[in-house]
């Protein structure tokens, strides 16, 4: 009678494989979270840059002042203690040209200004900096700063301040 050999894994082999998998996941998950955070911050910063570039080009095209401002309702510029993470609009006179909804919860966009004007020449009415960051920095310490110069040029810089204030 031929001898049958059973195929499969022993319990020890299975436990070793699970332990190795757990170690690999323990190393990969924090790295993945940091990459995901960087992608989200870069996306919000790029959206702010696109809004500023659109406002600048519309100001030149329309030969009128066009503003980018924080907006709570998507129809008017906010005043007082409003913040950019609640959303923003591109506005020419009383006409809303574009609306950006609020960012995901847990993220902040900080700035000392709530309105940025672009003149018909394409220049800004002043300088502005908007900081995009995680409200509670836990994974990595990343942020993005969107700077708009008095000439209307926008730049994005990556920071690692570790705080969001």
Give structural notes.
The structure is a single chain. The strands form 2 sheets. This protein has a 4-stranded antiparallel sheet, with helices on one face. It has one helix at 11-62, and strands at residues 66-70, 88-92, 95-100, 107-110, 115-118, 128-134, 143-148, 154-159. The radius of gyration is 24 Å and the shape is elongated. By secondary structure, it is of the alpha+beta class. The chain has a single domain (40-159), classed as minor pseudopilin epsh fold. The longest helix is centred in the N-terminal third of the chain and has 52 residues, at 11-62. The termini are far apart. It is built from 1 helix and 8 strands. The mean pLDDT is 84.
CATH topology call: minor pseudopilin epsh fold
Q: Compute the gyration radius: what is it?
A: 24 Å
Number of discrete domains = 1
Unreliable sequence segments: none
How many distinct helices?
Answer: 1
Shape: elongated
Report mean pLDDT, rounded to a whole number. 84
Strand order of the largest sheet: 3-2-1-5
Q: Tell me the name of the CATH class.
A: Alpha Beta
Give the percentage of residues in beta strands.
25-35%
Largest sheet: 4 strands, antiparallel
Q: State the end-to-end distance.
A: 79 Å
CATH architecture: 3-Layer(bab) Sandwich
How does the helix and strand content classify structurally?
A: alpha+beta
Number of strands: 8
Q: Can you give the helix content as a percent range?
A: 25-40%
């Amino acid at each position: 009678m031929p001898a049958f050999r059973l195929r499969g894994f022993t319990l020890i082999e299975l436990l070793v494989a699970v332990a190795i998998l757990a170690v690999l996941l323990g190393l990969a998950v924090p790295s993945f979270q940091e990459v995901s955070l960087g992608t989200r911050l870069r996306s919000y910063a790029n959206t702010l840059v696109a809004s500023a570039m659109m406002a600048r080009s519309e100001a030149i095209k329309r030969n009128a002042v066009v503003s980018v401002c924080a907006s709570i309702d998507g129809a008017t510029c906010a005043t007082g203690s409003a913040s950019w993470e609640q959303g923003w609009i591109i506005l020419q006179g009383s006409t809303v040209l574009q609306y950006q909804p609020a960012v995901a919860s847990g993220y902040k966009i900080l700035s000392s200004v709530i309105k940025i004007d672009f003149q018909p020449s394409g220049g800004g009415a002043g300088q502005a900096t908007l900081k995009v960051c995680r409200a509670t920095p836990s994974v990595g310490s990343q942020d993005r700063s969107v700077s708009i110069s008095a000439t209307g040029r926008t730049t994005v810089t990556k920071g690692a301040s570790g705080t969001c204030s």
